[in-house]
Amino acid sequence: MKPPGPKINDRPVRVPDIQHKKQRGEKISMLTAYDAAMARLLDQAGLDILLVGDSLGMVMLGYETTLNVTMDDMVRHTSAVRRGASRALVVADLPFLSYQVTVEDALRNAGRLLQEGAAGAVKLEGGRSVCPAVQRLVSAGMPVMGHLGLTPQSFHQLGGFRRQATHPAEAEALLEDANALQDAGAFSVVLECIPDDLARQVTAQLRIPTIGIGSGPHCDGQVLVIHDLLGLSGPSTPPFAKRYANLGDAIVKAASAFHQDVRTGGFPLAAEKEPTS
Questions:
Q1: Does position 2 have pLDDT exceeding 80, yes or no?
Q2: What is the dihedral of CA 182, 189, 38, 97, to 10 degrees?
């Protein structure tokens, strides 16, 4: 049963639909998803985009960064999300070193996400340095979402997870990167952890939509990691994330109650005796 709320259009969301939302001034909603069950629920909720992020390495697989995620990981989780979602646009991250070495690598690995994972688009991190790969993917018919600002695959180079482009020269470089991604054919760009005013400037300057995470209210859309939204991230929840539910505590409480019932004989319930004739 679908949750109560506005009527949701069951027509599949395509890349042009996302671009038209910017033209109409409609905000774009995007959440991460990593499995079929969650994808089905988020699809029912009416999300525009489901992002199979390489963040799965941290929130699903227990790694400290996204750098350990492989192409096989991404293909497996992307195909699971696609099986659960019938209408949202599924975008899959290209993981670390799957596109940075050669354009041919980028083409082959993006092709796997679309062919084996059934993604509708791919996302990659970086600006002008990755534009040759973006251009090649787009020319092959593969929609590409860019990602600027805090790029987790550059965790070591950036000195950790911190706000980016806070100095004028860095802000100017990010603007140039955003325009270069647009010129290379990207259909949208994620802006992560940059100043609100810079996000406003990038959004106003680009023809393609911007989707913000920790970058203020002026982007054309917003994205959150589903574990942060549901209260499943514990103390690692970033300060900009809004917790819409606290399922972490609810799960601990339910599992603890089960544990106690098993210990005391409260579960399973004793079968009722069949009446004797």
A1: no
A2: 80
Which residues carry out catalysis?
192
**Tokens of residue 244, six digits:** 């819409």
List the one residue out of 162, 170, 189, 167 whose CA is nearest residue 178: 189
| 171-206 tens-digit pLDDT | 999 999 999 999 999 999 999 999 999 999 999 999
Beta bridge partners of 148: 191
The amino acid at residue 86 is: S
> Residues 6 or more apart from 31 whose CB is under 8 A from it?
42, 47, 49, 50, 51, 223, 224, 225, 226, 229
Burial class (CB within 10 angstroms; exposed 0-12, middle 13-18, buried 19+) of 113: buried
User: pTM surpassing 0.90?
Assistant: yes
Which amino acid, 29? S
Residue 6 falls inside a structural domain: no
| pLDDT at 3 > cutoff 80 | no
pLDDT tops 90 at residue 270: no
Q: State how many domains the chain has.
A: 1
Which residues, in sequence order, are bridge partners of residue 121?
91
Read off the pLDDT band of 237 (50, 70, 90).
confident
Domain range enclosing 202 = 15-246
* Cβ–Cβ under 8 Å, residues 209 and 188: yes
Contacts 24+ apart (CB under 8 A), 53-59: 53/93, 53/123, 53/225, 54/93, 54/95, 54/96, 54/152, 54/153, 55/93, 55/152, 55/225, 56/32, 59/32, 59/34, 59/225, 59/227, 59/232, 59/233
What local confidence, expressed as pLDDT, does residue 158 receive? 67
CATH number at residue 237: 3.20.20.60
Q: Amino acid identity, residue 245?
A: A
For residue 270, being part of any structural domain is answered with: no
What token pair was written down for 265? 């004989």
In 3D space, the residue among 206, 215, 229, 265 whose CA is nearest the CA of residue 55 turns out to be 229
